[in-house]
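INFO  loader      accepted 1 record
INFO  loader      residues=383
INFO  predictor   begin
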Amino acid sequence: MFLQLWLTFAPVADKVAERLNVTLDQVNWLSVVYMVVAIPLSFITTWMLDTWGLRPTMILGSWLNMAGSVLRVVGVLSYLPVYTWFPIVMTGQVLCALAQPLVIFSPTKLAALWFPEHQRATANMIASMSTVGIQESVPPMPPSASADTSNSESFSKGIKSLLTNKAYMVLLVCFGSGIGIFTCFSTLLDQILCVKGYSNDFAGLCGALFILFGVFGAAFLGLFVDKTKLFTESIKISMCLTSLVCTAFAVVSQLGEQKVIIGAVCALFGLFGFAIYPIAMELSVECSYPVGEATSAGLVFISGQIQSIVYTTLLTTLTTKLTDSSQSVCAAGDDANLNWMATCFFVIFFHTPYRRLNMEAEAAENHSIQTETQGLLNNGTDT
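INFO  predictor   done
INFO  writer      dumping tokens
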């Protein structure tokens, strides 16, 4: 639902601009505002999740989301003065943007507290791809040793620990770049394709294919990683495939009358790219444990929002200039170059032990030894 609210206007940007009597740049800000709001609020959200817990944070996010959605509807009612439409819609969009971090940071925390190590990636994937009801902040019994010691570091200490963790910083920069590429693609897809004569309906179909195949990709990768624990290898391969598809999109989006090819490329972009998100969130916890799950996942998300603003602003400027020419080409080529730079850097420099899994394995071994020792002592006493 949060994804739908964020991208409501992007597939029909020209129609929205005409309806609200504003410019295309102003319509783009209905999407960009999510990134701007998320940067300062994310720090508060990580603290709330690690301090208040899941349930109160999710409830607050849901109420903000509902209030924002109502305002978005009110803002386009015909009996209101035209000059009030865009400000009211933007206010509603801001409220929805305030709600987004409160919910989008929750899956990693949910997976850590409620699920054992062989189910966490799948649980993160399901929670990331849908809306899931949460009745309690923590389960009656912790499902793993890490859940029992969750939030063992304070928020401020956790931030300092993350900023000095080399593997985490590589993940933060590179995966944050991937979020930026995804945001640019989703926000500007209609404006890129319409340059070559493709309709809003087709741009919306491409966006739907991207998300639909992304869900399938995330489901498969989540199950695979839970079975194999190949977090790093899975993400590196997926990032390389995503970069290839991104490069292909940069080429085919410059061509006219190629709906089948463009649709297929968008589907593959979602299949390989969207699938990375829940696994990367889990990997951010693995390489930074015992830092709080919301904190480690939250900083990666903040990095993505900062890079999203930079990329979207840059590519919007380039696209506006190019569409004035009869020989217009899309600005997606820069998008692909940025994606390859991040991918190469991540593949070469990212290496990390899985700290949370290692701790849980050690705890399980110690528990087994204690159980065996206690059994021997009991046998000796009985004798």
